[in-house]
Predict the structure of 2-hydroxymuconic semialdehyde dehydrogenase.
Amino acid sequence: MLDVARKPGQPEQAPKVKDVLNFIDGHYLPARGGRTFDKRTPVDGALIAKVAEAAEADVDAAVKAARAALDGPWGKITPAERGDLLYAVANEINKRFDQFLEAEVADTGKPVSLASHLDIPRGAANFKVFADTVKNVSTEFFEMATPDGAGAINYAVRRPVGVVGVICPWNLPLLLMTWKVAPAMACGNTVVVKPSEETPQTATLLGDVMNAVGIPKGVYNVVHGFGPNSAGEFLTRHPGVNALTFTGETRTGAVIMKAAADGARPVSLEMGGKNPAIVFADCDFDAAIEGTMRSCFANAGQVCLGTERVYVERPIFEKFVAALKDKAEKLKLGVPEDKATTMGPLISLEHRNKVLSYYAKAVAEGATVVSGGGIPKMPDALKDGAWVQPTIWTGLADSAATVTEEIFGPCCHIAPFDTEDEVVKRANALDYGLAAAVWTTNLARAHRVSSRIEAGIVWVNSWFLRDLRTPFGGMKQSGIGREGGVHSLEFYTELKNVCIKL
Ligand SMILES: NC(=O)c1ccc[n+]([C@@H]2O[C@H](COP(=O)([O-])OP(=O)(O)OC[C@H]3O[C@@H](n4cnc5c(N)ncnc54)[C@H](O)[C@@H]3O)[C@@H](O)[C@H]2O)c1
Ligand SMILES: N/C(=C\C=C\C=O)C(=O)O
């Protein structure tokens, strides 16, 4: 297990500063020109890594290695053989569980209890679900009549799109990177991954796993850096990239879509959200509170599917606000290794400044601060960490920036509503449409409201319950495309029809 020598709140010996390298054609390499950037832990601001910032020539080498791998053994094996290799990747991640756990926690500061139950297990599970998908999926076949009476047959085959650029965010680093890499590889593609500059370690570790299980060199590549005028932009503009899959902010997605337009490359975009939770008076109250606590505050609110707008039917509004306040004030902010910790820091001081700017904006817009709203008192050893208080507001108009703009922190605004039509209209009022949670014990209402909500994913009496075979993605400004199960094949393969004259 992890070294838990550090007692909660006690200063840790200065961590060993790691060199995090690019992974190109099966080798760990420094950046050409030797550029690096610092990675600091958000727990206390200590420097934990010097990361190789890929030069444009490094990205070019990675794309060329990925292209070459397509023409090698990787391009000749069957889907079933690829599936077996991806299962081996999943098993090797599980064998190295603590190493991935330590790296993910170091980069993000998230509680060990969270990363060990979500991030790392899903990193392995993503490879298994898509290995199973490609092993079991069928295509289509049509017999047709022809004028000469001999007839013809048609069958469809799936072929890889080629080299896929994968650009990932920092909130669930291994989970969200493998959510794209696994289907891309399962479909026979090769990948060049650009992890977030905030969370470089687990994507880098995965390179060693690929080598260990025998994935051919060049199939999986990792280049580190930032967005504009760095590895992110170099990758999206590289003519050797056949498709781009992106997870991140909506405005970044739009920039990447523009870059992909050169050369008419397809994009899959998983973007921002401002997700509603709708709580009816007939709900299972304790379940609604527990579920809304998770959807608002899990991962310090840094989950795209998370709730930042809560609508509660008026008869239980006051009771709900009081209960959520009580639970939120029981969250334990602390070091990741402490089993008692239930909320970690935000990813960085920069992101904390963004979240705190909304905490201030909420007050300026006239919000009632039910709980939180600032920086918590932390032990001296942690004072340089990116800590914020879990925060609850009421009293704002639906038009307030706090209620319409994505904050991506541990905060939510709670508003009362009176009718189903009213709350559906309010929930659908934004340009986002990623996820929603509906809490009711009325079966007809559950189906009726879920059908009317404009979101790619609606949970009823649950949140973040994930069957990986289901379609996943956002509507409106929250995404383009659906991934998950067979839906991923639509993006990661070219479907070809072969017509044979008999
Ligand atoms: N819909 C989903 O499934 C989903 C999942 C997780 C996070 N998100 C969203 O991601 C955001 C938080 O993540 P973030 O802050 O890392 O997002 P971000 O858009 O700032 O960065 C995401 C990635 O894009 C890269 N990037 C930035 N500018 C680029 C450019 N011009 N060209 C190429 N690459 C570029 C970044 O380096 C990073 O790797 C939130 O908006 C959240 O809602 C969405
Ligand atoms: N894409 C997924 C989760 C996204 C979480 C956003 O922060 C998933 O569960 O597959």
Observations:
- The first helix runs from residue 56 to 70.
